[in-house]
Write a structure and sequence with these properties.
Length: 79
């Protein structure tokens, strides 16, 4: 599978620079399992458990995220 995200092309982890994902889910078990799967596939994953934490992670990140994986039903979000 070839990924074309944020101007980067290739498979995650093959260029020595994994693509970065911000993973946002309030369910810690789902977040942990998803992180394990994505990291196994070569992604660099940053986790957040809520909207406020996700915004903080995005603001403090030295590089922009290539992909956002977000739970559609976060309790602190209305849309």
């Amino acid at each position: 599978m070839i990924w074309r995200l944020g101007g980067k092309t290739g498979m995650p982890g093959t260029r020595g620079e994994p693509l970065c994902i911000l993973l946002v889910d309030d369910d810690e078990a789902v977040r942990s399992l998803t992180r394990l799967i994505l990291e196994h596939e070569g992604w660099s994953v940053t986790e957040a458990g809520c909207r406020v934490e996700a915004l903080a992670r995005a603001a403090e990140s030295p590089v922009p995220f290539d992909v956002l994986v977000i739970d559609l039903y976060l309790p602190d979000c209305t849309g």
